[in-house]
Amino acid sequence: MTMRELANRLKRLLGEIRRRGVFKGVAAYAVVAWGASLAASDLLPAFGAPDWTVRAFVICAVVLGIPLAAALAWIYEISSSGIVRDRGPGHAAAGPDKGEHAGNTTLLFGATDSVCVRWLDPTGPREQVFVKAFRIGRDEACELQLDDPLISRRHAEVRFEHGRWWLVDLQSRNGTRLDGQLVERAPLPPTCSVRLYEGGPALILEVRGPSLAALTVTSGSGRLPA
Asked: How far apart (Å, rounded) are the C-alpha atoms in residues 88 and 65?
């Protein structure tokens, strides 16, 4: 194995560790373990425990706890639907392709009020049109599935509420950006750019139909719809 191959493998490994949040998980555990050790040093002697029990507690928390925390962070992912097993970035790719031909438009459900999403993938330009709420993420259950390790399994959702379309972040790991601004929940303008992590590929969203007319009237009056 050459040095370049070794460096590439290490780079991929570090990227996967970062994607799975292992560093964050270990750091969070270290804070909890430190607090628990301080509490043990006060409580155990108060209950008559010998001095060695405090040292044993600290050693077990460090020697056994940190590797266990790292392993759990590698295996599982905390998402809006709870703690789920992370099967790696390739798992989402195994699902069915939502658009069979590059550059084709897929019209889902059929209606006049819709959101058109355009983006680029390795096969070329893609486009889908949605008339109902849709989720964006790596999971094969998402209506708009993207194979990118920095995108959460269920990253964001676009939903229609109160007469207009909204972009909602689903407690994703790297956040959701609407026209460059990090948002948790925000109304969609007539045309906008959405990125699912800083520096990530852009999804161009275009609102079509009656909600676009409502947005235009609202913008002229200077107030949001009820």
From this structure: 24
